[in-house]
Amino acid sequence: MKSVPHAGYRERYVWVKEKDFRGQYVLSGLRTYLIQLENGKFEGRWNGVWNLPIKVADSINYAISLDGEEVLWLYDHCAKFEAHVSHAERTYRLPRQLVIKEKLFMPSSYRAVCWIFTIENRGNEDVQLKFIANPVVNLMWEVKQAGEPWRERRMLVIYDHVRGALLYRHHMRSEWIALFGANKVPNIVYAEHPGNSKLPLQSKIPRPREHVYGDALLIYDVKVPRGESFELTFVLVGGIGTLTFFLKEYDELLNKAKLFFEQNRQDVLRYLAETADLSTTVKSIDKAFTWSKVNLYVLKHYKRGYGLGYMAGLPNFPIYFGRDTIWTLLGVNAIGDFETSKAALSMLARFQAKDDGEDQLMVPYYKGEIPHEVRTDGTIIYYSIDATPLFVIGVYDYYLWTGDDVFIRYIYDNVYKALRWCFKSDRDGNGLIDHGPEGFLPDVTWMDSLFRGKSAVDVQAIFTYAFRCGAELAKIVEDYETEKEAIRRFEELKKLLVEKYWDDERGFFYDTIKPDGLPDASLTINAVVPLFFNLVDYEKATKVLAKLESSDFMAPWGVRSRAKSDPEYDSRSYQKGGVWPFCTGWVAFSQFQYGRLDKGLDTILRMAEAQRLVTAYFKEVLPGDGPIKEVLTEHEHPLGCFIQAWSAGIYIYALIKGLAGVEPKAYVKQATICPFLSSRLSEILLEELKVGSCSLDFRIQRLSDGEVKAKLYVKEGELNLNVGFKSIGCADTCRIHVNGEEVEGVIEPIGEGYFRILTPLDVKAGKTLSVSYRFK
Fold first, then answer.
1. Among the four residues 68, 159, 439, 720, which has the most C-beta atoms within 10 Å?
2. How far apart are CA 675 and CA 282, in angstroms?
3. Above 60 in pLDDT, residue 146?
4. CA-CA distance, 730 to 769, in Å (whole number)?
């Protein structure tokens, strides 16, 4: 395992900003998350602290007063913001040479947020000040929060004199609780809305049955001698539960805040160290990879009664989406977080439709259908055409990486029902998958803001590959009837995909077949989905990719969802021209898969740029054209979520399986590692790569004299491994040595102007192999 903390910590594990603190920041444990601005301010209805399905607080802002009258809010004096992989740090510079340093963190398994403030007096005189905490507790049902005009904010509040803390409970639901306080007893507690800008001179605490709005002030008198510092720790706990447990969590965290901070830090670093890591000679690629893993860690969420899964994105989608989950799991499997992948698949299986019926939106669903939305308030919504076939794909991808025969047999009943649902999805008998025009929904593809009925090209590709995956899964459990049916449907739909959707004149796929049977010639990103699943021959694939690589589609930060030349193009549209990192990952992986290796690297660099623009996160969607900075700082009408799970997952997938060329077949203890090396990318390091029970490190580098050297160390398990690399040019003969002994290898051309070389190796735990490649 890599050392903890990782070498080069600040370069790769920290984002630093010293100006323009308007970006959004999220911090999350497994059960609670916080959203605020980088300067520490809470702004907008989605900012605050959440323990789903309720919101705990709208904001928790801090300030000081040096004269007892003027209030200096810390967020107005932020001089530096640091997003670490496990926490946030801020530096505030205030008058009289006061510097306040803040550490903000969330213990993973607690329903809490912790702040540690260090007030440093760097002046020549002692300073007497008032430190002000302003919690705005708002115990509100999450669904109602989405409707801004509807605001209840009616709570009861009690002041705990022993703890120096405010205890809130909902006026009707006693199990909705929040508790806020510090490791110092406040001098003044004003547990009502202040009503003006002046600080209160005495405490005011409501009676036990008096309703309040949740807006309070806790004021602490603090003296900081010159050259010294003073420390204050604050804790907010809250959610749905019993008072006994919340008091226990509060006391534990307040008394051992520094211990929990360090434990939480090590937990995150351990997750990063124990899952697969990729390093190259291009630092932007590496940092985006690390923070993609952080994005997944942040969006990993546990809900009692549901299990462990991934929220689709924040702030708008704190929901377990069926479609998004599977696309995300492609990256989760690639880094070897198999337990979370298994848990997320099991959650979707749990809520699979058991019979035909209607969901809460009066939308019909059918037996075997995988839900589109699993909300933590108990709402289950179906209506997605692709969540069900993607579920089959997700189970098979998990199997490729793990070889977990037991889990496949455990979940096969759900796979079988999902396949039966898929078999029935050709409603009119023309061989294509139908969706959209039944009348109960405008559309049900990933482009859910557009009408794309009745047979979208991406849907056909997803179903085609799902039939292939389903056949393999059926074969494992000896369900030969289902295997035979799935193979037949795979072959039929794969053929129809080309016959019905390929436009030879344009060298591109139609976007959909409309209800009138005519093809829709819109130029959209969806044409790449058949390539992603390797369903198209090389000639057609290169034509599609050439068009996607042109300036008509390609922006500096990714691929537009619709071509600029398309009449419907709108750079600020959600799905008619915006750049989705998720879809850009489709293109990157397809480029690697079809041998357009340098183009694939270019697209990966664009994805890394997309993450840099949003600082630490893969956004849901970026504008198709600039000025991008102005668009990204618009909080009134932002383009989508500022952090999105499937964007991070697909970036990881495109790097591990595309750039690094990893092909797992854990069920037969086999794998391939064949990365792309070039003048821009002369070295690749994979650490903690997991295939089944095997864990290994792999480094390959091109030396200045043209020789290529690789080193492989196996930590656990055994594997039949094909090892090599891809490169530009051509090669006829190559001398390959493994630990000094010459061995045979296979050289073959790929794509246009590239080749790859592979040699078989049997690897076992504790074994180190050195491989050299020298061309004649």
1. 159
2. 14
3. no
4. 26
Q: Which distant-in-sequence residues (6+ apart) come within 8 Å of 663 by Cβ?
A: 657, 671, 672, 674
Domains belonging to the chain, first-starting first, are: 9-269 (2.70.98.40), 275-659 (1.50.10.10), 665-775 (2.60.40)
Tens of pLDDT, residue by residue over 702-737, are 998 889 999 999 999 999 999 999 999 887 889 999
Residue 344, CA distances (Å) to 98, 368, 410 in order? 48, 17, 14
DSSP assignment of 515-574, as one string?
TTSPEE---BGGGGHHHHTT-S-HHHHHHHHHHHTSTTTEETTEEBSB-TTSTT--TTST
- Look at strands 78-84 and 14-17 and give their pairing: antiparallel
Query: Half-sphere exposure (CA, 13 Å, Cβ side) for 181?
Result: 29
Rounded CA-CA distance 463/510 in Å is 17
CA angle 758, 661, 698 (to 5 degrees): 75
DSSP string, 283-322: HHHHHHHHHHHHHHHHHEEEETTTEEEE--EETTB-SEEH
Distance of alpha carbon 644 from alpha carbon 299, whole angstroms: 8
Beta-strand pair 670-673/718-728: parallel
For the stretch 756-769, pLDDT in tens is 999 999 999 999 99
Tell me the two tokens of residue 60: 């928790």
Contact 503, 519 (CB under 8 A): yes
As given in the structure block, the two tokens for residue 262 are 């360090």
Specify the pLDDT at position 626.
81
Rounded Cα–Cα distance for residues 540 and 461 (Å): 15
- CA 263 to centroid of chain Cα atoms: 23
Q: Which two tokens stand for residue 537?
A: 């021959």
Within 10 A of 744 (CB to CB), how many other CB atoms are there?
A: 7
Q: Sign of torsion, CA 241 246 248 249?
A: positive
Q: Which two tokens stand for residue 551?
A: 């300036």
Tokens standing for 404?
Answer: 């977990």
For residues 318 and 52, the answer to whether their CB atoms sit within 8 Å is yes
Q: Name the strand (E) or helix (H) holding 672.
A: strand 670-673
- At position 46, the amino acid (one-letter code) is W
Q: Which helix (H) or strand (E) holds 424?
A: none
**Rounded to 5°, angle at Cα 662 from 773 and 697:** 70
Cβ count near 516 (within 10 Å): 7
| DSSP strands (E only) in 86-202 | 88-94, 98-105, 112-121, 127-141, 155-160, 165-170, 176-182, 188-190
Is residue 154 within 8 Å of 111, Cβ to Cβ? no
Q: Are 223 and 125 in contact (CB under 8 A)?
A: no
pLDDT at 478: 97
